[in-house]
Specification:
This is DM13 domain-containing protein. Residues 70-187 form the DM13 domain. The structure is a single chain. The protein has 187 residues and is mainly beta. It folds into two domains: 1-33; 34-185, Sandwich (Immunoglobulin-like), CATH 2.60.40. Helices cover 13% and strands 37% of the residues. The chain is built from one helix and eleven strands. The longest helix is centred in the first third of the chain and has 24 residues, at 3-26.
């Protein structure tokens, strides 16, 4: 085998390894593949909106209802690094448990997407910082789980231990690239 041919084979081998690694990291096929979630809404009656906001602990009961819920916060998603629409609502059930419901979500699919509650404001504002959509993992956040689908409606339980008093937004977060796909304000 000639030296020139060996060099070209070595270069081709390196390029194949780089291509395979890039495909594994970026998963470009996700740009054209949607995952749809279809979690139904809970049957518990909504009996009001909490006057104390996201950290409110009071849940009024409705006569004749076994399980009720109140809205703690609700807002529309806004775009982050990717176009994102839908509505995020945090509920408290009459048994004290809390959950996040995302309705009519439409965003890009991506690798390693998660749903978080964070102490950062929705919209990526960080007063002049260079990476305003990458700030959501800088301080306090509550991980609610992997995004079930980049389309549709889905529910996420909020851990009983989570202190929501400081939480200011819901974030669709790409853990692999440390960016917010979209956010919704909670306060």
């Amino acid at each position: 085998m000639s030296r020139r041919r060996a060099t070209w084979l070595a270069i081709a081998g390196v390029l194949v390894v780089v291509l395979v690694a890039a495909l594994a990291v970026f998963e470009p096929w996700l740009l054209v593949v949607d995952r749809t979630a279809d979690d139904g809404d809970e049957p518990a009656a909504v009996v009001g909106t909490a006057t104390g906001g996201i950290a409110d602990t009071a849940v009024p009961s409705a006569p004749g209802e076994e399980l009720t819920r109140v809205v703690l916060a609700s807002a529309e998603f806004i775009d982050g690094e990717h176009g994102t629409t839908g509505r995020a609502t945090v509920y408290r059930r009459s048994d004290g448990s809390r959950y996040l419901r995302i309705e009519d979500l439409a965003t890009s699919n991506g690798p390693d997407l998660h749903v978080w509650l964070t102490d950062k404001p929705s919209g990526g504002s960080c007063d002049g910082c260079r990476d305003s959509w990458g700030i959501y993992d800088d301080d306090a956040y509550v991980r609610l789980g992997e995004l079930k689908g980049n389309r549709g409606s889905q529910n996420y339980e909020i851990p009983a231990s989570a202190d929501l008093a400081a939480m200011r937004s819901v974030v669709i977060w790409c853990d692999r690239f440390n960016v917010a796909f979209g956010t919704a304000p909670l306060a």
